[in-house]
Write a structure and sequence with these properties.
Elements (H helix, E strand, L loop, with lengths): L6 H12 L3 H10 L8 H10 L6 E6 H11 L6 E4 L1 E3 L5 E4 L10 H13 L5 E4 L2 H4 L9 E5 L6 H6 L2 E3 L3 H6 L2
Parallel strand pairs: 1-2, 5-6, 6-7
Antiparallel strand pairs: 3-4
Length: about 180
């Protein structure tokens, strides 16, 4: 999604080609359980132990994200992700266009919603892509931490407040 087509149009076009049934999604999840980056479980545990709320904001699909959130102990209400819609027989109907992450600028909108609802003094966004970086704007995240442990995106890293390659770096800073 290079930016020439609005995110929501590109998402709809891709899903209409693939048409994932509920059975296909469940089969995929069964065959490919979530794999987490080293150190993320420990980081989330430490944040939660320090009474710091953790949210998962993704342009991916809630059906794929929920197992990750479950492993990390992130409550369902702290997940912002696209939601695939299925009919009674499990057939693909589309996606929930009301999710902020279903549109361009959606991660920034999700952060704004969180901020308005919870009145946090400081918010940080950790991510690896341009849509994560977009969340660092007035009314959004106060700090953007670029995680380059899977893939370094130079343009994103150049604009980050902090660049990390391992979650241990963040863990150590919390001590």
């Amino acid at each position: 999604m290079g930016g020439s087509v609005p995110f929501e149009e590109a998402l709809a076009a891709r899903l209409s080609l693939f048409k994932p049934s509920l059975a296909k999604v469940e089969e995929y999840l069964e065959k490919r359980p979530p794999r987490l980056s080293p150190g993320i479980e420990e980081l989330v545990k430490k944040l939660r132990a320090n009474n710091i709320d953790v949210y998962l904001i993704s342009g991916g699909f809630r059906q794929m994200i929920s197992p990750v959130a479950s492993i990390l102990g992130i409550p369902r209400e702290n997940i912002f992700a696209n939601n695939l819609l299925f009919g009674n027989s499990g057939e693909f109907l589309g996606f929930d266009e009301n999710e902020p992450t279903s549109r361009s600028g959606g991660k920034a909108k999700a952060v704004e919603q969180i901020r308005k609802g919870r009145f946090y003094k400081t918010m940080a966004m950790i991510g690896d892509g341009a849509t994560d970086l977009e969340a660092r704007k007035p009314g959004g995240a106060d700090l953007f931490i670029c995680y380059a442990g899977v893939q370094l995106r130079e343009a994103v890293a150049a604009k980050a407040d902090w660049l990390i390659f391992k979650f241990e770096s963040l863990l150590n800073s919390l001590d």
